[in-house]
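A reminder from the course coordinator: this example appears on the midterm review sheet, so study it carefully.

Given structure:
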């Protein structure tokens, strides 16, 4: 048996009755729209900051540097802290909002947090599209960040709790699939509006986030609360049972309901989940709530997601060609994520993490090598090498979209017991947003100074995280959330930290 693999869990998921119903599919589709907006806001920023009319209006210093390419290094044209603040302000706002989202999600349920996120997205996109100065532009991004903080806190939990255990991976990956659809939609729109005469196409790009935001906001008004949340917030077990029956498409849900009630009763003994999660028995969950979102960000994917058009301009493509190349990578990422949705509950999490990590590492090493050997501070790659870099970027995006992209959201949402779930998810979201902000704010500086070495930097982290998963992450495929603690007791490393309640109480005295 390979290191860290848990025993087969198919017998655990088989004890629950139910099937995939239209009720749960439609509810999950509405909730997952939050991923479309998140992806759209990621993808749209890299496109608009490569448009000359946008730069001329809000970032004239960068625009002037673009006109002096013969005097400035390819890698340093877009090096501007004010420019990166346009991208990164969304994520620092999301970080702060996530700490407010955690108690709201825990106290009032998943649906209110989704609704708040939708409203914030709607207002933020309206401000961005109508911006007349840098302050209005940044305020719109901050409000979008509030939406990200609430949506990323609640939507993955909602999807994991609504889905049948056997198909939980596929349902949760729907969030990442929606993120990919959002990125692709943004890339397509940027490519189209860049050609609008008059230079106001960027307004359409920023404002169109209001379309999915409206759908999410209105849909959230009709979303049912999850059975887990209903049981956690009241004693009306009958209502929770009715929801569970509708979600599962069967009247025989007593076994699952009993497990939910048992988990809820245990969670109610915990008054301060943030104090609880630092205790020894929750050490595996605490480590994963920090490590997984951290590793997801240092894969280097945000180099592509945020700045793909800028990256392609760096290797010598024109503005329109750069935007088209971003569309190509968006198509590849979305297609690979859809494939991940189909195979995750068959192949398992660990195998996908490992294969994706190897793919990303090799492609990043090759991209860095080509740029180091063939791209100087001025000029451009030849057409052949430029096409090769684009292909390698697509391979890298496919590797990410089959592994750390969807699984970085899925695994944290399914490994936390109910009593610490909202706190742990809050930590996961916060860590992800902290490092998203750091990378978004520093990437253009890093690109200017590290040049092609930026790909070796992120490739090194990919090697480390692949080893981490192989050694320390057990398989969670098909295991009900309420029985997830067993995987840590069976794991070669984590079992030393996890003890049963009796041993735990003795250790506290």
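Designed residues:
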């Amino acid at each position: 048996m390979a290191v860290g693999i848990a025993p087969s869990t198919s017998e655990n998921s088989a004890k629950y009755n139910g099937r995939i119903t239209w009720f749960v599919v439609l509810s999950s589709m509405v909730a997952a729209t939050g991923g479309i907006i998140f992806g759209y806001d990621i993808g749209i920023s890299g496109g608009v900051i490569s448009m000359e009319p946008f730069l001329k209006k809000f970032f004239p210093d960068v625009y002037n540097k673009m006109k002096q390419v013969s005097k400035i290094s390819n890698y340093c044209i877009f090096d501007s802290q004010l420019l990166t603040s346009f991208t990164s302000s969304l994520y620092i706002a999301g970080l702060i909002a996530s700490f407010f989202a955690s108690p709201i999600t825990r106290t009032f349920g998943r649906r209110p947090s989704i609704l708040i996120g939708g409203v914030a997205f709607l207002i933020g996109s309206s401000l961005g599209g109508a911006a007349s100065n840098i302050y209005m532009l940044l305020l719109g991004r901050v409000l979008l960040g509030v939406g990200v903080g609430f949506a990323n806190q609640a939507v993955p939990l909602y999807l994991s709790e609504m889905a049948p255990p056997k198909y939980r991976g596929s349902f949760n990956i729907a969030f990442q699939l929606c993120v990919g659809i959002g990125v692709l939609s943004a890339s397509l729109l940027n490519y189209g509006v860049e050609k609008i005469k008059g230079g106001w196409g960027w307004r359409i790009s920023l404002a169109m986030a209001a379309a999915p935001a409206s759908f999410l906001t209105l849909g959230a008004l009709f979303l049912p609360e999850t059975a887990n949340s209903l049981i956690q917030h009241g004693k009306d077990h009958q209502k929770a049972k009715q929801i569970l029956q509708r979600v599962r498409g069967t009247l025989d849900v007593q076994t699952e309901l009993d497990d939910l009630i048992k988990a809820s009763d245990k969670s109610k003994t915990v008054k301060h989940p943030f104090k609880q999660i630092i205790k020894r028995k929750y050490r595996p969950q605490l480590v994963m709530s920090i490590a997984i979102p951290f590793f997801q960000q240092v894969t280097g994917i945000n180099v592509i997601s945020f700045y793909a058009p800028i990256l392609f301009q760096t290797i010598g493509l024109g503005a329109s060609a750069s935007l088209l190349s971003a569309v190509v990578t968006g198509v590849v990422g979305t297609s690979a994520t859809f494939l991940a949705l189909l195979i995750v509950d068959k192949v398992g999490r660990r195998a996908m993490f490992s294969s994706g990590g190897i793919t990303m590492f090799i492609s990043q090493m090759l991209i860095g090598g080509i740029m180091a050997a063939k791209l100087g501070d001025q000029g451009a790659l030849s057409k052949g090498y430029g096409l090769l870099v684009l292909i390698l970027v697509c391979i890298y995006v496919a590797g990410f979209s089959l592994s750390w992209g969807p699984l970085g959201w899925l695994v944290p949402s399914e490994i936390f017991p109910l009593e610490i779930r909202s706190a742990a998810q809050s930590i996961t979201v916060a860590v992800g947003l902290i490092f998203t902000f750091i990378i978004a704010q520093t990437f253009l500086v890093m690109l200017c100074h590290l040049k092609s070495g930026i790909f070796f930097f992120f490739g090194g982290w990919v090697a480390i995280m692949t080893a981490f998963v192989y050694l320390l992450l057990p398989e969670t495929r098909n295991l009900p959330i309420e029985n997830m603690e067993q995987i840590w007791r069976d794991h070669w490393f984590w079992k030393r930290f996890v003890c049963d309640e009796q041993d735990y109480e003795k250790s506290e005295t």
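The chain has a mean pLDDT of 81. The domain at 20-223+269-500 is CATH 1.20.1250.20 (Growth Hormone; Chain: A;).
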